[in-house]
Design goal:
By secondary structure, this protein is mainly alpha-helical. The chain has a domain of 65 residues. It has six helices and three strands; from the N terminus they run E-H-E-H-E-H-H-H-H. It has a three-stranded parallel beta sheet. Helix 1 runs parallel beside helix 2. It starts with 7 loop residues before the first strand and ends with a helix.
Length: 140
């Protein structure tokens, strides 16, 4: 039995420069091979995505996070709330659209580097409770 079976591990710094192997990338792959579901996080989203793709190619589960992107979305959400509370008495409203996983050509190319968009679409759909990615038309 794998020593990390049924466990989730977050590896910050899971990317590597070029095709090399840094400590974070090696740790992420190693934990996945030991049965963990590994969340890959790196300051360079493509590097985290490359590590996650490597783990997924080995038959393991490895979502990854765009830390800067997600932090900026969280900040906008709080900013919108502050604007709404500050200006509600004057009839000013504020909204933020947080659509989740959306199937766009940019997202598919960014996530996979264009290697296997169909496999990426299936993987991303599996991350969503509805079992499918949203469409840009649903966001609009």
């Amino acid at each position: 039995m794998a020593r990390f079976a049924g466990r989730s591990v977050i590896v910050v710094g899971a990317g590597a420069v070029g095709d090399g192997w840094g400590n974070g990338k090696a740790a992420a792959v190693g934990h996945a091979r030991d049965g963990a579901r590994v969340l890959c996080v790196d300051r360079v989203a493509q590097a985290a995505g490359a590590t996650a793709a490597l783990i997924a190619a080995g038959g393991h589960d490895a979502p990854y996070a765009y830390a800067r992107y997600e932090a900026s979305k969280a900040a906008l959400n709080r900013l919108s709330r502050s604007i709404a509370l500050t200006h509600a008495a004057r009839g000013i409203r504020s909204n933020v659209v947080l659509p989740g996983v959306i199937d766009t050509p940019h997202a598919a190319a960014f996530v996979t580097g264009g290697t296997d968009p169909e496999a990426t679409a299936r993987h991303r759909a599996a991350l969503v409770p509805m079992g499918r990615q949203g469409t840009p038309w649903e966001v609009a």
